[in-house]
Amino acid sequence: MDLIVRLFLRLGALFEPPAVPQPIPVPVRNWRPRLPVAPRG
What pTM value is reported for the model? Predict the structure, then answer.
């Protein structure tokens, strides 16, 4: 059983894309154009 599990893990590692370092997350607000928000009151 252990050999079968290792085989599946190795096959999964082959098919998975290599771990790429994640870029620094950019706040979503910078991507969206600022919309004028009308104050309600």
Answer: 0.32
